[in-house]
């Protein structure tokens, strides 16, 4: 049931029935604003700008950026009766998805060992946005919406922990985001390569056993990645390829060519799930997701305590979010090498939409579904161009600089990936080419004072990193 009635006083009282919740007025916002369409561009100071300098320059130029109005968050009951464990629910995609599902009436539990916060601590990184603790986040969500999100804090590599949680919560679906997901992190040294593969592959095998033993009807929705396919010189299909060889035909898993220990861990997961789906007659959907960008969803924008993470460092920051923050702060966009690297991208709000669609559409038991989860594909150069245009609309002068590529990857290549499965099930994409990047840029500007410029340059080289633990600076 969908309702759009505004709750009394603009906020929902506890109770969790359907309705709408609105964010309070953007009090306490930091950073430059409101905007000035057509305001003069701010000079870039040779790319050596500091956040404070940028803020000053913005103020002096008269360019000011209004925050986007917070969208209304609707509460509905459409997921009623479905019980979903979100593994990795304290992370970027998991947190947004947990709130999206809770707002729609799914009963949600978050399972997370908080390791991601710990890795940031170890490396001296911080998200651009100041994220609250998991416990504060879910308490605030319940206060605003009346909807409870249960938490299980623990490691899915610990089977005893996983078993107890699955037996208690009795999920009808598990969404598995809970992995070490950075390619550069996995390439930093041997320890991190081994850790990434152990964490990701062991965790997924444990989840498969937990479902088989304690929740055999549960549908596993697992996050894979478009990078599993690599960059072949033929079209990328959705999971499977029809092959004719020496007069015989078969439909085979699409060939995989990962380009980091991380991407390879995802390939191993896919192979393991393909095996158990057939062997144990399971319901499994593998989502090969592209690079995600953006920060706010209607749910996370409700309150500062619900804000999602937004990484811009060279290890966990992904290309587009990094470019947006670099553009906001006045740092030249760091295009690696020739910039012809082409990938699939999607807005964080579309990640949420896709997860809901995947949960609601399990395939037949014994047949692993594979969906390519991205909405648009762009080269890195094209992304830099889109961020430059967005900056110009906000009165910011954004420049780009090609820097030596720390990765070993094709910098010019054919790329044409299919993505019709989710659209056929009703996915309605939010396209960045519609000027939607401006809202993300405004979030970056709001938190501009938190940017640590030392985190921007790449720190992991695919070839020179080795057994010795540490970071090899490739650019000084
Ligand atoms: P993230 O690092 O923000 O979140 C991952 C979460 O999983 C973290 O909160 C972490 O603490 C938790 N976690 C990791 N190992 C765990 C374990 N053993 N037990 C329990 N919890 C564990 O990552 P994200 O960006 O939200 O990505 C989520 C998933 O989506 C990952 O599997 C990633 O590979 C995939 N993906 C992400 C992107 C992207 O652009 N962010 C793109 C494609 C695919
Ligand atoms: N790149 C730049 N400049 C930068 C950062 C990246 O040119 O400052 C380039 C990279 O060289 C690469 C491309 O942008 O060619 C994408 O890099 P990325 O860091 O955005 O993405 P990647 O390392 O592939 O990993 C991210 C997520 C990962 C997810 C993957 C989806 O961290 O969890 O699986 O995107 S995909 O790329 O489709 O495999």
Structural write-up:
Helices cover 33% and strands 16% of the residues. It is built from 13 helices and 16 strands. The protein has one domain: NAD(P)-binding Rossmann-like Domain (Rossmann fold, 3-Layer(aba) Sandwich). By secondary structure, it is an alpha/beta fold. It has a seven-stranded parallel β-sheet with strand order 5-4-3-6-7-10-14, with helices on both faces. It starts with 18 loop residues before the first strand and ends in a 30-residue tail after the last helix. Helix 9 (319-329) packs across helix 13. The longest helix has 25 residues, at 190-214. The structure holds nicotinamide-adenine-dinucleotide and sulfoquinovose-uridine-C1,5'-diphosphate (USQ).
* Global Rg: 22 Å
Number of helical segments?
Answer: 13
Say what the CATH topology is. Rossmann fold
Fourth CATH level, the homologous superfamily: NAD(P)-binding Rossmann-like Domain
Outline type: globular
Please state the structural category: alpha/beta
User: What's the number of domains?
Assistant: 1
CATH class: Alpha Beta
End-to-end Cα distance, whole Å, is 56 Å
Fraction of residues in H or I helices: 25-40%
Q: Provide the list of bound ligands, each named once.
A: nicotinamide-adenine-dinucleotide, sulfoquinovose-uridine-C1,5'-diphosphate
- CATH architectural type: 3-Layer(aba) Sandwich
Mean pLDDT: 88
Strand order, sheet with most strands? 5-4-3-6-7-10-14
Spell out the helices and strands N to C.
Answer: EHEEHEHHEHEHHEEEHEEHEEHEEHEHH
Strand content: 15-25%
Largest sheet: 7 strands, parallel
């Amino acid at each position: 049931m969908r309702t759009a009635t505004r709750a009394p006083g603009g906020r929902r009282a506890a109770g969790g029935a359907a309705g709408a919740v609105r964010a309070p007025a953007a009090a306490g916002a930091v950073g430059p604003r409101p905007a000035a369409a057509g305001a003069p561009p701010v000079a870039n100071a040779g790319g050596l700008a500091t956040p404070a300098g940028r803020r000053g320059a913005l103020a002096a130029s008269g360019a000011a950026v209004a925050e986007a109005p917070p969208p209304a968050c609707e509460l509905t009951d459409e997921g009623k009766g479905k019980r979903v464990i979100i593994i990795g629910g304290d992370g970027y995609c998991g947190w947004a998805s947990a709130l999206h599902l809770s707002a729609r009436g799914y009963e949600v539990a978050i399972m997370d060992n908080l390791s991601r916060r710990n890795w940031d601590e170890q490396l001296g990184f911080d998200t651009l946005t100041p994220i609250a603790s998991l416990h504060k986040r879910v308490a605030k969500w319940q206060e605003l919406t009346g909807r409870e999100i249960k938490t299980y804090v623990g490691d899915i590599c610990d089977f005893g922990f996983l078993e107890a949680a699955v037996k208690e919560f009795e999920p009808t679906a598990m969404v598995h985001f809970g992995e070490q997901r950075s390619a550069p992190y996995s390439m930093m040294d041997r320890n991190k390569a081994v850790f990434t593969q152990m964490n990701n592959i062991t965790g997924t095998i444990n989840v498969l056993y937990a479902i088989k033993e304690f929740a055999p009807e549960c549908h596993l929705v697992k996050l894979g990645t478009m990078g599993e396919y690599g960059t072949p010189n033929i079209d990328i299909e959705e999971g499977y390829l029809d092959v004719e060889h020496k007069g015989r035909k078969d439909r085979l898993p699409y060939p995989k060519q990962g380009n980091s220990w991380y991407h390879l861990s995802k390939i191993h997961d896919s192979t393991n799930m393909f095996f158990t789906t057939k062997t144990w007659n399971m319901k499994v959907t593998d989502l090969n997701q592209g690079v995600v960008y953006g920060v706010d969803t209607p749910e996370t924008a409700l309150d500062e305590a619900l804000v999602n993470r937004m990484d811009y460092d060279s290890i966990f920051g992904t290309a587009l979010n990094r470019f947006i923050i670099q553009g906001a702060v006045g740092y030249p966009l760091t295009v690696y090498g020739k910039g012809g690297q082409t990938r699939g991208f999607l807005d964080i709000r579309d990640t949420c939409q896709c997860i809901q669609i995947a949960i609601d559409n399990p395939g037949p038991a014994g047949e692993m579904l594979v969906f390519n989860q991205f909405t648009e594909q762009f080269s890195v150069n094209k992304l830099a161009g889109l961020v430059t245009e967005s900056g110009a609309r906000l009165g910011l002068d954004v420049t780009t600089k090609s820097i030596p590529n720390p990765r070993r990857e094709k910098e010019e290549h054919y790329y044409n990936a299919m993505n019709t499965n989710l659209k056929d099930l009703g996915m309605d994409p939010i396209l960045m080419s519609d000027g939607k990047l401006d809202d993300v840029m405004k979030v970056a500007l709001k938190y501009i004072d938190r940017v640590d410029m030392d985190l921007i340059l790449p720190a992991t080289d695919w070839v020179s990193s080795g057994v010795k633990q540490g970071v090899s600076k490739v650019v000084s």
